[in-house]
Amino acid sequence: MKKRCLSILLFCAMLNAAFSQITDSMQRKYGDYSVYTGNTSINERDVNRAVIPLNSTTHFVSPDPIKYVDISSNDVHGDLPEKNIFRLKPDTSKVHPGSVFTVTIVTSSFITVYKLQVTNNTTSTDGDYVITLNPNNGLTINQADVLNRQQCFDLALKAFNKKRSIYNIKTKSYGLDFWINNIYSFGDYIMLDVGAKNNTKLQFGIDQIRFKVIDKHILNATISQDIEFKPYYALYPAEGAIIKNHWRNFYIFKKFTFPAEKLFEIQLDEVQYSGRKLDLKFEYNQLLKSESIY
To answer: In CATH, what class is 30-141?
Structure first.
């Protein structure tokens, strides 16, 4: 009788363990520091660890926009003041030195988990504490056809060190030269290396730079069908920049095509009340000659 009861108890324990394993594999688990996405997980050994001050606000800075954040403790409050910044602050009336909680941060390209321990041993009592997220220390997701900001930055820096190879896409007006140094392609993306030079003593303040596909021959302005493109990434913000001598920037676009009767136009406008404007145009076959960069 005792042997039979023992066998039944052992069998139930095995069923319970099997059921728990199946249930755990179907969900994302943040409390025990494992994040499941299909068959891939962040294990305990891969969890990032940090010590944060009790009386300060902690900021997490991500290279990509943050999509979702989970905090394992209800006594810690957080928000997203910017798309790529998450900030949190423990409730000092409920959280004490030595307390430990977990933060899971999800971006479009990676998931990272932090196990945080609270301390009051800090040189700043009311300042900010910053943690910079490293995609290499997290679980990579959706990387097959999507570039993150860090990858865009790395590609732009790589292109920055290359010499100019295109000399037939250029224009000149108002004492300014405007040209394309190079056109690159990689995967589903195109990058334009754009440069300008101010040959006058009057500085050129950029109001905006626009990218459009326009008709080669406009018979009637009312039926013109211009299509404007927004860059996926720009190395430097152009608006508000001042061209005193040389200027250069890199723009990444999702790969696009346009017919032979169209042109791609880059329009560089000065701030208002001056009226200087430069238009740079090229045909689609220039894109077909783009150089690969990885």
So the answer is: mainly beta
